[in-house]
Amino acid sequence: MAASVVAKLRRGLLPQAGLVPILQTVRYGSKAVTRHHRVMHFQRQKLMAVTEYIPPKPAINPRCLPPPPRPPKEESGLIRLLRREIAAVFQNNRMIAVCQNVAISAEDKLLMRHQLRKHKILMKVFPNQVLKPFLEDSKYQNLLPLFVGHNLLLVSEEPKVKEMVRILKAVPFLPLLGEQVAVPEGGEMGWVPQSLVPSARNILSLMEPESTA
């Protein structure tokens, strides 16, 4: 009885023939470190220092040279939209006035916009970098000297100068620089410029000293 029990225990504990035990003790050898920086021989260092390439200095300092031409910037969709809107404003309106866009309160500007809208006079604001190229290639070139700082346009399909001037008189700190009104001349529609900016001749006459008798 005891012999059979011992035989069963040996059969269960000892590995059977043809089977590999699950746990095996493996001894790994030390790995050589090959990632460290290998020091160059001092003679090779001297040779590399002597034969090092030194590029020649440019005859002209690069800072003195003109900058290279920049690639042309593509127009954004906003610029194209503003250009079409400006062309439509100048084509569909017979009265175009230019005012200086001074810093006024939002309430005063809203009230003035409401009063102008009663007479179908609209207030338009466009950036000068888009408006000036349009004026240079159009028949409104005489309005170019007025667009120096921040400006706004008062446009109307009908020439309503009296109503516009009456409303602007109530806002003395919003100067009217000039306007262009389309009036019929000889059966054809023509543009009459009316600028409130003094001409160069008038400015020179004011600057000259008065002649003594």
TrEMBL record:
Its main location: mitochondrion. Keywords: Mitochondrion, Ribonucleoprotein, Ribosomal protein, Transit peptide. The gene is LOC109680161. It comes from Castor canadensis (American beaver). This is Large ribosomal subunit protein uL10m. Belongs to the universal ribosomal protein uL10 family. It is found in: Mitochondrion. Gene3D superfamilies: 3.30.70.1730. The keyword Ion transport does not apply.
